[in-house]
Design a protein that fits this description.
There is one protein chain. The protein is of the alpha+beta class. The chain contains 17 helices and 18 strands. The strands form five sheets. A five-stranded mixed β-sheet has the order 11-10-9-12-13, sandwiched between helices. Strands 17-16-15-14-18 form a five-stranded antiparallel β-sheet. The protein is flat, with a radius of gyration of 37 Å.
């Protein structure tokens, strides 16, 4: 028996034994995005085709009867000609006919098993847990802490009879709401019945809970359980982690460079669609090299011809985790040239901030030039834009990248007055040039970050949640995890993700709270004099 729905196909293989059907096997499979678009006839035929392929070894060589609730299929198998038939449909019918041509119709009411296998199971809606007040009355009678409750002066305790029974439960009538006392076995269920409705925050959960029930340290329990709620931790953002930006000024020119790729751009007249951008960390000398493609071979060749052949081999290259920079060919170039490669963490462009910030200036300048020029072609405007960016003085030092690189400023279009004084031969020119360049040593940029925030528990927690910075579908959780922490560094953590170990920026993490960690927290708080602070027991 087979059946197909809009999303799935299902079948059951049965054998008629002792005047009744005995199931031998079940089959169910979700349809692909293309198969979902099939007509009803094609989906029902596909269900038979997949079921025959699945159960082939069980019935091969035996008489097979196929039952389907789609009656047109009973005639399609006996067609004498396949002229004009869709090739896919003809192939499936030919395959089925190799095993049987006996396809019979069955009503949908009698095809219950196959019909259920072709439907996606609807998830049950979890309703809030209700409290059985008769069981509550029994638990109150066995609770030994009620004697201490009677001594509380701020409570007005009264035993109230349950309707239609002779049982009574202990309640507090000091507020406008009658609040029953909950023994320990009922507290978690009562909390979940309130919090799991809409997962409100800690303050709202405490307020709603205190209007309905009471028990010692109810506020503390509600806060602890809300803090450890996995759904809340994955979906809510209280405050993003923002760590202090690290600084590591280079010691020499062209010692440390940053590389990245810009594009795809509108194709130029020569077929260029990308830019390989390179910038020196010391001098801030930029390069933007046009590319036809971004394969590893093209990237390696362009770096060698466009930078290394002019400025020599750098000591360090910083790049993101693009597949071009992760390739074996790129790694071989680094090893051959004696270059150490530093890779940034995923979804954290601040790690490559120098070149990412320069991209903004480059794109803004190209856009302005293309808007103002007659042809508006970025490839023709690129050399002029690079000239201007190299000659522009930096706001922090007042010196341009060209001055850092050459020891003098560039002559730009419009410089009409040129120093024509012929200087005498100076044999100490090299030493003076070195002295001038050292005087231009870039100062460490100050990063004023008033919004810096790193959660204290992030330094000690065993598990963390990872923020998903990729494009998400609507109503998808903001965080995923929790994942165990294997190693801690100042700017990144090494995490055990499913199937791999990777480094993740600390700015994408937040501590994960679990009930196990809170219940096993034996930390004792003491005053400055050494006295142990005992928690205050409050009745909310």
């Amino acid at each position: 028996m087979t059946d197909a729905s809009d999303k799935c196909a299902g079948a059951v293989l049965q054998q008629y034994v002792h005047n009744k059907w005995q199931p031998l096997g079940y089959f169910s499979k979700a349809l692909s995005s293309a198969q979902i678009k099939y007509s009803t006839f094609d989906r029902e035929l596909l269900a038979i085709y997949m079921a025959v392929k699945h159960f082939r070894k069980m019935f091969e060589g035996r008489h097979l009867i196929i039952f389907t609730d789609h009656k047109p299929l009973t005639y399609a198998i006996n067609k004498t000609s396949s002229d004009g038939e869709i090739p896919r449909r003809a192939r499936q019918l030919i395959y089925i006919s190799e095993f049987t041509t006996d396809i019979r119709h069955i009503s949908g009411q009698d095809n219950i098993v196959a019909d259920s296998l072709s439907r996606i199971n609807t998830e049950t809606i979890s309703c809030p847990t209700t409290i059985d007040y008769e069981q509550l009355a029994t638990a109150q009678e066995r609770d030994s802490t009620i004697r201490d409750l009677m001594k509380q002066s701020n409570l007005q305790l009264k035993r109230i009879s349950l309707p239609n029974t002779n049982r009574k439960i202990l309640c507090d009538t000091s507020t406008q709401h009658i609040r029953p006392y909950l023994p320990e076995t009922f507290r978690r269920a009562a909390y979940e019945s309130v919090h799991n409705l809409s997962h409100p925050g800690m303050r709202t959960t405490r307020k709603i809970l205190s209007e309905k029930y009471f028990w010692p340290s109810m506020n503390a329990d509600a806060g602890r359980w809300t803090k450890a709620c996995e759904a809340c931790q994955k979906s809510k953002v209280s405050r993003h982690t923002t760590s202090q930006i690290a600084t590591f000024p280079p010691a020499e020119r062209f010692q440390h460079i940053h590389v990245d790729i810009v594009g795809p751009l509108p194709p130029s007249q020569y077929g260029h669609k990308y830019l390989l951008t390179i910038i020196d960390r010391y001098t801030r000398w930029p390069e933007a090299l046009p590319l036809h493609d971004i394969t590893a071979e093209t990237i390696v060749k362009t770096i060698y011809e466009g930078w290394i052949s002019r400025f020599g081999c750098p000591t360090t290259i910083t790049s993101d985790q693009g597949r071009q920079f992760e390739s074996q060919l790129f790694s071989k170039l680094m090893k051959l040239m004696g270059i150490n490669r530093t890779r940034t963490t995923a979804y954290h462009p601040q790690s490559n901030g120098i070149i990412e910030r320069w991209h903004r200036s480059l794109k803004a300048a190209l856009t302005a030039r293309c808007t103002a020029s007659a042809n508006g072609k970025w490839f023709d405007e690129l050399p002029t834009v690079l000239l201007g960016l190299r000659a522009a003085t930096r706001s922090d030092t007042g010196i341009s990248p060209a001055q850092y690189t050459y020891g003098t400023s560039l002559r730009l279009p419009g410089d009409f007055f040129v120093d024509t004084k012929v200087s005498e031969m100076n044999h100490d020119f090299v030493e003076q040039l070195r002295h001038t360049i050292n005087a231009y040593r870039p100062a460490e940029t100050s990063h004023s970050n008033n919004n810096m925030f790193v959660h204290n528990d992030l330094r000690t927690c065993e598990n963390v949640y990872l923020r998903k910075d990729c494009t998400k579908k609507p109503l998808q959780p903001t965080y995923e995890g929790p994942y165990p922490v294997l190693e801690r560094c100042e700017k990144y953590y090494k995490l055990q993700l499913p199937g791999r170990i990777t480094n993740v920026s600390i700015d994408r993490l937040k501590p994960a709270y679990t009930m196990y960690e809170q219940e096993n927290d034996d930390t004792q708080r003491t005053t400055r004099s050494g006295r142990i602070v005992k928690p205050v027991v409050r009745f909310a």
